[in-house]
Specification:
eight-stranded mixed beta sheet, alpha+beta, FAD/NAD(P)-binding domain, ten-stranded mixed beta sheet, about 35% helix
Length: about 500
């Protein structure tokens, strides 16, 4: 590449610069490589390979969010009713992701080794929770995308669905569960590495062990990105027409460094977590489902407890958690100064407002941090009564940085979803937040394409429709098309 200016001989140029080697950058790169193959694309990741932070399955709290079993996506209203709209919306987004993955597999760009069929279950106990789950089932099962959902309060039936949750349980305890057999488990670390391997094999400039230290406006209207090669210590500047900040928790600092008005006022609240991972193959082999329960009062949605079968690099595993924790780091491999260095005059009021209004969250995190190993085992035993401390390893999960944003009434609000931020001229975009995150990477990146490249997008839409047959269609309102797409994607992804 040519030098950017005589003053900086190390500078290079690129059309698109992707910061972070996670599922978001990989998905955006995979789109652009097919939509605009003549563009020069460069990806920078500070770790040794792709998908090692939030996209890694050991760090990721969810591995296939489709709202089939996650109760926080369909809470009860004050009158006890359950609105299916949010759950349907998330499932629609997951269907878009599935279609894109199916396209990538059928085109020979990636393999289907990252996804496995797995039932999704919700499990609760007690009268109030059981009544809620019944109402949720009645609401969701009336929707075409959830029509295969089953519900039962029969202990014998639940023991068939997930024997470990019923063995040793008090027979007088009222329990209830819902199940969708056609759920999936997604190893987003494996998927990310499949996508980045495709990018690297098709002309994308892949730079691992390269840390981005700053993003500033260039005199030409693009962006100058400061990069350090961690292997050699060499610093350079890359000039880019478009920059995507997809560095997970690290995105906030770089968004702030860009100085765009649209990024003003945003803050981040980091939440860490731990899981118990079974080491007993006889236990692992007897559980085959994602079983989600109800979050504790004051707990963030990402801390919903679940007994979770996962396939990591093709190997079956069993996890329970997460247990909440706190660290000021914004990345698992980040700095303890991440949180204090993120405070700005523009986000101080929102952050103080969130601190004032979220004491229940603070109490929850303090309680979790102080919880002993025996206390963690007791929480597991609520799901699996026969569980013992032996046979389970405690592992540290990844960091989640929940979005703090301005609010005219409260000063600031804590948001548990994702926030896509783009400059007015579309030259830079950033993704903040976590859940449902990776599972909805495809629709999130399509939204980014619309906002960042409005002049090109109309010309790209026919190709996008080829990749995603249900693009622009609400599958929940088109049952026949939904069934056709499900059959096709299941066949290509090896799920049927």
């Amino acid at each position: 590449m040519t030098a950017n200016s005589p003053a900086d001989k190390s500078a290079t140029k690129t059309d698109v610069l992707l910061i972070g080697g996670g599922i978001m950058s990989a998905t955006l790169g995979a789109f652009l490589k097919q939509l605009q193959p003549d563009w020069d694309i460069s990806l920078y990741e500070r770790l040794d390979r792709a998908g090692l932070e939030s996209s890694d399955p050991w760090n990721n709290a969810g591995t296939g969010h489709a709202a089939l079993c996650e109760l926080n996506y369909s809470p009860a209203a004050a009158d006890g009713s359950v609105d299916p709209a949010k759950a349907v919306g998330i499932n629609e987004q997951f269907q878009v992701s599935r279609q894109f993955w199916s396209h990538m597999v059928s085109a020979g760009h990636i393999s289907n080794n990252f996804i496995n069929p797995l039932p999704h279950m919700s499990f609760v106990w007690g009268d109030a929770h059981s009544e809620y789950l019944r109402r949720r089932y009645e609401s969701l099962s009336a929707q075409p995308l959830f029509k295969t959902m089953e519900f039962s309060e029969d202990p014998a039936k639940l023991a068939e669905w997930a024997p470990l949750i019923m063995e040793g349980r008090d027979p007088s305890q009222r329990v209830a569960a819902s199940r969708v057999v056609g759920g999936t488990d997604v190893d987003f670390g494996a998927l990310t590495r499949e996508l980045t391997a495709y990018l690297g094999a098709n002309g994308v400039n892949m730079h691992f062990r390269h840390e981005v230290g700053g993003v500033t406006r260039s005199s030409t209207g693009g962006w100058d990105v400061k990069v350090k090669d961690l292997a050699t210590g060499t610093a350079s500047t890359v000039s880019a027409r478009f920059v995507f900040i997809g560095g997970g928790g690290g995105a906030l600092h770089l968004l702030q460094a860009s100085g765009i008005p649209e990024g003003k006022g945003f803050g981040g609240f980091p939440v860490s977590g731990q899981f118990l991972r079974s080491t007993d193959e006889s236990i692992i082999s007897r559980h085959n489902a994602k079983v989600y329960g109800q979050a504790s009062v004051g707990a963030p949605p990402m801390s919903v407890p679940h007994l979770d079968t996962r396939f990591v690099n093709g190997q079956r595993s069993l996890l329970f958690g997460p247990y909440g924790g706190f660290s000021p780091k914004f990345l698992k491999t980040g700095s303890y100064l991440d949180l204090p260095l993120s405070v700005r005059p523009s986000n101080l009021v929102p952050m103080l407002g969130v601190a004032k209004d979220n004491m229940s969250l603070v109490k929850y995190l303090v309680t979790e941090v102080l919880k002993t190993r025996e206390g963690k085992t007791a929480a597991l035993q609520e799901f699996m009564p026969t569980a013992k401390t032996e046979g389970w390893d405690l592992i540290t999960a990844g960091q989640r940085v929940q979005v703090i944003k301005k609010d005219p009434k409260k000063g600031g609000v804590l948001q548990f979803g994702t926030e896509l931020i783009t400059a007015a001229d579309g030259s830079i975009g950033a993704l903040l937040g976590a859940s449902p995150g990776a599972s909805t990477a495809t629709p999130i990146m399509i939204n980014l394409l619309k906002r960042a490249f409005p002049r090109q997008f109309d010309g790209w839409e026919p190709k996008i429709k080829e990749m995603i047959p249900g693009y622009g269609v609400k599958l929940n309102e088109n049952e026949q098309l939904a069934a056709e797409i499900e059959a096709d994607t299941n066949k290509v992804l090896g799920l049927s």
